[in-house]
Amino acid sequence: MLGPTRPVPRVGAKARIAHFGGGRENGTVVAVRDDGRLVEVLAEGGETLQFALSPATARFVSAASGQGPRLELLGDG
Questions:
Q1: How far apart are the first and last CA of the chain?
Q2: 34 with 46: CB under 8 angstroms?
Q3: CA–CA dist 14, 12 (Å, integer)
Q4: Per-domain residue ranges for the chain?
Q5: pTM confidence score
Q6: Are 53 and 66 in contact (CB under 8 A)?
Q7: Contact present, 69 and 20 (Cβ < 8 Å)
């Protein structure tokens, strides 16, 4: 039986936030909504960011604007 090919969003999962311009910071998923299409991440700097799954690219992009930071969910290990 096949499983997901990439990490599934879940509360407590580790993530990496890629900011426009090349900066990156780590974060932790604190909420998952809309069947996994909307996630909230607590960044290491203390800011909470929302990301939405883009239907065009299947990547998590800033929920406020598609031009903002991107989210990469990290595997369990």
A1: 21
A2: no
A3: 7
A4: 14-73
A5: 0.86
A6: no
A7: yes
